[in-house]
């Protein structure tokens, strides 16, 4: 198997270039190019890729990893419109900004090539009390019982919440769907237009407060009326959804 330097020289000669002509064609100083052919200097991967495109051979062939030339597709010989646009924009900015762009690209490439990108980053989680007795978005369920601790994804709302519940039913769609886990901040009452967890005559609901009724967002479901004879308790205000 031939070396990169040998293949580079062979392909240059095959295409009728002198060393000086090919160096000028590639925009590379003559002494630098001569060192590439002599094997005393190794080019960066982007330079090798440019050589492969110019000579219409695969990178694997040029670096001596493949005996077949595997000529490049003509589509790979030219930059895409997006690439040309990026090049034009890059040339418009001053050298200082060009260096900034290159540094950003270097960081991005290092990130992609690092071993750490092969592993999923751990998602920050926090623990909250989880109450059993799913609040009904429907006909209503029984009282709340502490079921234990649940781990949920950390967020600003999650830190504010005192406990988590799971929705049962569709009466609060589209905002809250059946099976959603909701974040609840403990408080004895909420304002009109806010959504809370309620116990009315022994049944648990997730509903929007609206005067003397607990309002269902889904028009297919009836509201829950509140009367002077109702046994009513507010467990807290729903402040968002929990991500499990």
TrEMBL record:
Keyword Amino-acid biosynthesis annotated: no
Gene3D superfamilies linked to this entry: lambda repressor-like DNA-binding domains (1.10.260.40), Umud Fragment, subunit A (2.10.109.10)
Pfam families, sorted: HTH_3 (PF01381), Peptidase_S24 (PF00717)
Domain of life of the organism encoding this protein: Bacteria
Keywords: DNA-binding, Transcription, Transcription regulation
GO molecular function: DNA binding
Protein name (database record): HTH cro/C1-type domain-containing protein
SMART domains: HTH_XRE (SM00530)
Keyword DNA-binding attributed: yes
Record domain HTH cro/C1-type: where: 8-62
